[in-house]
Amino acid sequence: DIKKIEIRKYGLFIKTKYRDYRLIVSKRFAESAYNNMTK
Question: Looking at the record's lineage, which domain of life comes first (predicted)?
Answer without folding.
Answer: Bacteria
